[in-house]
Specification:
The chain is mainly beta. It is built from two helices and ten strands. It has helices at 16-21, 94-101, and strands at 2-3, 6-7, 29-36, 39-48, 51-56, 71-77, 105-109, 112-119, 122-129, 132-140. The protein has an eight-stranded antiparallel sheet, covered by helices on one side. The protein has a two-stranded antiparallel sheet with strand order 1-2. A hairpin with a 2-residue loop joins strand 8 (112-119) and strand 9. It is globular, with a radius of gyration of 15 Å. The protein starts with a strand and ends in a 6-residue tail after the last strand. 21% of the residues are buried. The model has no long low-confidence stretch (mean pLDDT 92).
Length: 146
């Protein structure tokens, strides 16, 4: 996806340059350590209107990165100004979503309906309300048995 003409994707290095280009604070608020694949990783939340990014040192130990190297680990969009590469955005209809991505895995949880598409360790999820996309989240699936 693009923010301010700056492509940003899961796994991209989280750097001051990227944060500046998309007008977000490079320093985020610490949200905690999350277990993935039997190891705990630090997650930070960065926010601006309609956009939330979580950076983490996810898999630093497996990817030959420093413990202080952070990557984009989750992107959440609540503004229609950020379409996916297939043109889906907040406000798109269920029909548009199915046409672009197929039927997906539907989950109804605590009154919320989510449609999720998984590819490898990545997931693209859409929260639906009244037949339209309310929120979009891209994140890594947690393959650990925690």
């Amino acid at each position: 996806m693009k923010v301010k003409d700056q492509p940003i994707a899961l796994g991209d290095r989280w750097t001051p340059d990227i944060a500046c280009k998309i007008e977000m604070p490079v320093e985020g608020s610490f949200t905690g350590e999350v277990p993935f694949d039997g190891m705990n990783y630090k997650f930070f939340q960065h926010q601006r209107a309609g956009l939330e990014i979580f950076s983490s040192n996810l898999w630093w130990d497996k990817a030959e990165r420093s413990v202080d190297d952070y990557i984009v680990s989750q992107i959440t969009l609540t503004d229609e100004g950020f379409p996916t590469p297939r043109g889906i955005h907040v406000g798109s209809t269920r029909e548009e979503l199915n046409s672009a991505y197929g039927t997906g895995q539907v989950d109804n949880d605590s009154g919320e309906q989510w449609i999720t598409y998984e590819l490898g360790k990545k997931a693209l999820s859409f929260e639906m309300k009244d037949g339209n996309v309310l929120k979009m989240t891209m994140n890594y699936t947690n393959g650990s048995s925690e």
